[in-house]
Design brief:
By secondary structure, the protein is an alpha+beta fold. It has 2 domains: 46 residues; 52 residues, no CATH class. It is 31% helix and 16% strand. The strands form 2 sheets. A 3-stranded antiparallel β-sheet has the order 2-1-5, covered by helices on one side. A hairpin with a 6-residue loop joins strand 1 and strand 2.
Length: 131
């Protein structure tokens, strides 16, 4: 392999690895698994936290006899406890395939050029005398 090919291959492998470390996340409703909300990207060990909607949290009111700060916590109108965060594997695999194909194509394009003999000339193996 040539130096430019090594460079492109290294960049492709770096992008591939970074995509695995910062994968796309999705919020999934546990009672309806088909309900999926894209949650962006986050470091793989941290994940993407589900943040409750602010408009559903009532202000702290100690006179009502309930726990302080324990309002109805919802995310997109559904209780937070029904949501989970998962890695969006379909999107991650598509990204990995795209990077792999693009890297392979550029490595192939940067490959060494082999010269073909001109039409009408006879190719002779190197080292043998011409006739």
């Amino acid at each position: 392999m040539t130096n430019p090919q090594h460079l492109v291959l290294g960049l492709g492998m770096t992008c591939f690895s970074l995509m695995g470390l910062m994968p796309p996340w999705v919020h999934v409703r546990s009672d309806e698994p088909d309900t999926r909300v894209s949650a962006g990207y986050a470091f793989i060990t941290v994940g993407r936290q589900i943040v409750p909607d602010e408009r559903d949290q009532p202000p702290d009111d100690r006179r009502k006899g309930g726990r302080v700060g324990r309002g109805r916590r919802t995310y997109r109108g559904v209780p937070v406890r029904l949501w989970t965060a998962e890695i969006d594997t379909h999107r991650l695999v598509r990204q990995w395939v795209a990077v792999s194909v693009a890297t392979g194509a550029v490595v192939w394009v940067l490959g060494p050029r082999r010269r073909r003999p001109a039409p009408g000339t006879r190719a002779t193996p190197s080292g043998s005398p011409p006739e």
